[in-house]
Amino acid sequence: MSHNLSDRELPFPLARIGIIGGGQLGRMMVRKATQLGFSAIVLDPTPNSPAGQVAGHQIVGDFFDPAKLRELAELSNVTTFDIESIDSKALEELVAEGFSILPSPRLLASIQNKLTQKRMLADRGIATGRFVELDQPTPAALAEFGYPLVQKAQRGGYDGRGVEIFHDDTDPERILPVPSLLEEYVDCDRELAVMVARGLDGTTRAYPVVEMVFDPEANILDQLLAPARISEEQTRAARELAIKTIDAIDGVGVFGVELFLAKDGRLLVNEIAPRTHNSGHYTIEACVTDQFEQQIRAITGLPLGSTEQVQPAVMINLLGEPGYSGRTIVEGLSDALAVEGAAVHIYGKAESQPGRKMGHVTVVDRSIEAAGAKAERIRQVLKIRGERPL
Q1: In Gene Ontology terms, what is one molecular function of this protein (predicted)?
Q2: Is 85 helix (H, G, I), strand (E, B) or coil?
Q3: Phi, psi at residue 268, to the nearest 5°?
Q4: Are residues 315 and 261 part of one domain?
Q5: C-alpha span between 365 and 236 (Å, rounded)
Q6: Are residues 259 and 368 in the same domain?
Q7: Residue 268 lies in a domain
Q8: pLDDT grade, residue 1 (50/70/90)?
Q9: Same-domain pairing of 82 and 229
């Protein structure tokens, strides 16, 4: 059921990797798995999903269907995931039977609920912002906590959904009517992220600290700068905090650790992603070992690869254009590829919707400034939209 590649002689394929989730993260993971000599099986409810297109074998099924999760586990030597909204309880039962599922479903369950995630961090002495539980969201509860603040739904939030920021009490209709938590609003100098890989033997390696710039309206990552424009001391502190966090939760696999660098100098963990992450896409072109290969190495017991960054990089997301939906249309690809140092990734999603992640572009150059200028040129010419106006 489990598979640790400690042997020197192994038959091809070396192991079967099961991936819960057929989106872009799974797609890029499949490619690295097959590059290393593994085969991959994907579980996703959408036939011909982005990951399923390159895996060659997809189980069409829901992430909360215990029978489908079991089918995937039984066909795989080790199972992982590219999405957090899955049935962690069913996965825990499979682990109890001896199946290898990494990262741990028990850890996944703690992270799925943002309140239990915050408590887990606080209980392990990880620096994070002040927070309280909020079962019954009311204007009075927000006022008691104190403005400015952030309200987060305990479950289901993703890519800016399930999060509301309040600077005062003038907009009570925005209060999320679901079990939540309230967090202090951190006045940030920078929002940072560190991808951390941790192997079965506890070996941990951190990637460079990156800087995330968010779209203020969609609250989704708009541009990523690698490395971050911070001091050597701040860089060292961020990497140390990220490694401490993943060691503290005993994670195995690749994790995205999102951090706040506050204007008052505090460095705080915001959230953890127990999977490969949007903030690690730049590693494909800019680092010796990218996050997707690192995930495969970590969960199969292979040595972790070098996380050294070889060139500065800027990454931008390609979102579905507003005002259009339907079959995916790509405009300006030739112009984008004419930019030296640019790598375009189209995710293979058959339909585009406004704001949907459809791809990304990473530009490498000798400096962050040069890469950023090229990325902005590409942003102006490369568009992904649906074929039907809304």
Answers
A1: 5-(carboxyamino)imidazole ribonucleotide synthase activity
A2: coil
A3: -125, 140
A4: yes
A5: 23
A6: yes
A7: yes
A8: very low
A9: no
Residue 122 lies in a domain: no
- Token duo for residue 324: 């259009």
Average pLDDT over residues 213-240: 90
> How far, in Å, are 197, 210, 277 from residue 307 at the CA level?
9, 13, 15
User: Could you tell me the pTM of the whole model?
Assistant: 0.93
CA distance linking residue 72 with residue 373, whole number of Å: 44
Annotation: binding site: 114, 152, 183-186, 191, 270-271
Number of domains in the chain: 3
Contacts by 207-215 with C-beta closer than 8 Å and gap 24+?
207/280, 207/283, 207/287, 207/291, 207/307, 207/309, 208/235, 208/287, 208/307, 208/309, 209/234, 209/235, 209/238, 209/239, 209/242, 210/279, 210/282, 212/258, 212/279
Strands (E) in 1-45, as ranges, are: 16-20, 39-44
Take residue 107 and report the two structure tokens written for it. Answer: 């850890």
Q: Could you tell me which residues are beta bridge partners of residue 299? A: none
Provide the residue range defining the domain that includes 156: 130-184
180-184: strand order across its sheet = 131-134, 180-184, 149-153, 163-166
Task: Taking the CA atoms of 57, 60, 62 and 66 in sequence, report the sign of the dihedral they define.
Answer: negative
- Asked which of 138, 153, 184 is the last residue of a domain, the reply is 184
* E-only strand ranges, 250-356: 253-262, 267-273, 313-319, 324-331, 342-346, 351-352
Per residue in 307-350, pLDDT (tens digit) is: 999 999 999 999 999 999 999 999 999 999 999 999 999 999 99
Annotated binding-site members for ATP: 114, 152, 183-186, 191, 270-271
Domain containing 20 — which CATH number? 3.40.50.20
Burial class (CB in 10 A: 0-12, 13-18, 19+), 121: buried
* 292 vs 29: CA distance, rounded Å: 5
